[in-house]
Design brief:
The chain has 444 residues and is an alpha+beta fold. The strands form 5 sheets. Strands 3-2-1-6-11 form a 5-stranded mixed β-sheet, sandwiched between helices. Helix 2 crosses helix 4, helix 5 packs across helix 12 and helix 7 crosses helix 8.
């Protein structure tokens, strides 16, 4: 526990130091693409307190001065599969972004898409005896939370206080300075597989970069794609990536649940490739230009030339109707949405006051998805795009870059976490996170 706590504090200190120097990089390592954004920070005032998800950690205004994307290599299901290939792709993205920004970056904040995330709800309570709530009291309340056994081979990625209650008053975002008898704290803890994080950390270090922060891809996509009212009233963000579909549920501007499905847009491409016997590159082109989720009567007459370079003229001149293409794509899209629906039902999403669901990510751009998704997920579904941030080039403003834009907002004003407070050494929970430190010890 002590090692994990201190290592996360060290990363937060490194992030603050990089922001004081004025420049930090954002690294989105996905299954289909690797994106890098270079941020320049202008100072502590530029955001209103209501922007983003709100936090007690302080905020900074920033501007994107460099951006680059490259095709991802060596990544499957959001996890690194071939270290050298991924390293080369990261180096290429970072160097291209540095060239555009005309500045060198040494510190990056990365996001994790895979790792089989699991959510836990924690609760703790302390007595105040009529004293004012101090930061040390908040630290003691968080330390009093009974930590669950997260299992061997898993690490804590986020440990965020999501609600404070002072006596009979609940729903407090920052109780410091108020007077009461008892202070209660609700926390959301997110754990992922340790090997997934260890591989990402090692790969970033091989690129001669220092890691100044880690975040869940589903979490940062929710930050960038959900509007402020949606974050407050309760909404789910479904990040449909290439190799995995992440989901996060927000309530009172905090993430309260996260999960993922190991299915994404690349599986739709693979189905097209196998069904039509075409290369993956051709299948991706067909999906992007001609694909869809709902067929109409016109699609039977709309013929698409497959093309090819096999040398067999008859084979290369084949055509397929758009209705056939949609018939291949739709079952996989329905499977992804049904898996997401099962996860949301297990999380108790139906009990939230708002049933809003926002689809984002590259695979959410399939035409007709906005008509198919409400039949499976519920009526309140919309396609979301990330918030517009200053200096972001037009080519990286689409839904596919929701996690990258969310990482920018996460870097500028992060949500407070367990390690932002001075937890007394004698207050570490006995069953807390002691097994969750090995990868920090090995890789820091």
């Amino acid at each position: 526990m002590t090692d994990l706590y201190q290592s996360q504090r060290a990363m937060r200190a490194m992030r603050r130091a990089a922001m004081q120097r004025g420049v930090i990089a954002i690294l989105d390592v996905g299954t289909s693409k690797i994106g890098c954004l270079v941020l320049r920070f202008d100072g502590p005032d530029g955001f209103r307190a209501s922007d983003g998800v709100g936090s007690m950690a302080g905020q900074s205004a920033f501007r994107v001065i460099g951006a680059a994307t490259t095709r991802s290599r060596g990544v499957r299901f959001g996890e690194i599969d071939a270290m050298q290939e991924t390293e080369r792709a990261i180096r290429l993205a970072v160097q291209t972004a540095q060239k555009m920004a005309q500045i060198r970056v040494d510190h990056v904040i990365a996001c994790v898409a895979g790792g089989a995330p699991r959510s836990y709800g924690l609760a703790g309570q302390i007595d105040l005896d009529g004293a004012q709530v101090t930061e040390q009291d908040i630290a003691r309340a968080m330390a009093s939370c009974e930590m669950p056994p997260i299992g061997e081979g898993r690490e804590v990625l986020h440990a965020q206080p999501v609600n404070f209650a002072l006596d009979h008053r609940s729903g407090l975002s920052d109780p410091r300075g108020q007077i009461g008898q008892q202070l209660a704290c609700d926390m959301h803890l997110l754990s992922v597989e340790s090997n997934t994080l260890a591989n990402l950390i090692h790969c970033v270090k091989r690129c001669d970069l220092e890691l100044a922060g880690l975040a869940s891809s589903a979490y940062v996509s929710g930050i960038s794609s959900l509007m402020e009212d949606e974050q407050e009233l309760g909404a789910a963000c479904i990040d449909m990536g290439g190799g995995a579909t992440g989901m996060s549920i927000f309530m009172k501007k905090h993430m309260i649940y996260s999960d993922s499905v190991r299915l994404g847009g690349d599986h739709v491409t693979s189905d097209i490739s196998k069904g039509l016997q075409v290369p993956l590159a051709t299948a991706e082109r067909l999906k992007t230009i001609h694909g869809g989720a709902i067929a109409t009567g016109v699609d039977d007459r709309d013929l698409i030339e497959l093309g090819g370079e096999s040398g067999d003229w008859e084979h290369d001149r084949r055509t397929v109707s758009r209705a056939e293409l949609i018939g291949i794509m739709r079952p996989r899209v329905e499977e992804i949405l049904e898996e997401v629906r099962m996860r949301l039902d297990a999380a108790g999403f139906d009990h939230l006051p708002s049933q809003q669901i926002v689809l984002t990510g590259g695979a959410s751009q399939i035409p007709g998805l906005d008509g198919l998704a409400p039949r499976i997920l519920g009526q309140r579904v919309r396609i979301g795009r990330p918030l517009r941030v200053s200096g972001l080039p037009e080519k990286v403003t689409g839904a596919a870059f929701a996690s990258a834009v969310g990482l920018c907002l996460f870097a500028a004003h992060p949500q407070d976490e367990w390690w932002d407070f001075e937890i007394p050494a004698d207050r570490y929970p006995s069953r807390s996170l002691k097994r969750a430190v090995k990868w920090f010890k090995d890789n820091w």
